[in-house]
Design a protein that fits this description.
By secondary structure, the chain is an alpha+beta fold. It has a single domain (3-131), classed as Nuclear Transport Factor 2, Chain: A (Roll), CATH 3.10.450. The chain has helices spanning 3-18, 23-28, 44-56, 124-132; strands at 29-37, 40-43, 59-72, 75-86, 99-111, 114-122. A six-stranded mixed sheet has the order 2-1-6-5-4-3. The chain is globular and about 45 Å long.
């Protein structure tokens, strides 16, 4: 993988999330891309825009930080953290003004200088619990 390809995820998090540049989605994500999140597959920039709009319609002061980066061949894995202030109703709930944080892992395949395929897992439940003020359970496997 070349240095410009390595930098794509950094550009993605900085431009799409931290700067909120909606046009960066089409600049960095290939038109034939597929993003897998759970049982949902999102195709191309047009399929990704509703998610972008929902998150930016829910949070201000978004900051995503890449914590760890691993690469293997044409794939890059990033462990990331997110903070934002819940100031909009994009999640279907009234804004609370609360600052929330969550973490996730994204694995992305790079092809022809663009993000071509991605697998995403993040702690959405933990984020919603922070917004709604629900206490997390302290019961974990092995605890």
């Amino acid at each position: 993988m070349t240095q410009p390809e390595r930098n794509l995820l950094g550009q993605w998090f900085e431009q799409v999330w931290n700067q909120g540049r909606r046009e960066a989605v089409a600049e960095l994500l290939s038109s034939g891309s597929v993003i897998h999140e759970g049982s949902l597959d999102v195709h191309g920039p047009e399929g990704f825009y509703p998610f972008f709009d929902r998150i930016h319609g829910s949070f201000s002061a978004i900051h995503v930080r890449m914590e760890d980066i691993l690469e293997d061949g044409d794939k890059v894995c990033v462990r990331w953290s997110f903070t934002g202030q819940h100031t909009g109703d994009g999640l279907g709930m009234a804004p609370t003004g609360k600052t929330v944080s969550t973490t996730g892992i994204s694995i992305v395949r790079v092809a022809d200088g663009r993000l071509a395929e991605g697998w995403q897992n993040w702690d959405m439940l933990g984020m919603l619990q922070q917004i709604e003020g629900v206490q997390k359970s302290a019961t974990y496997i092995g605890a």
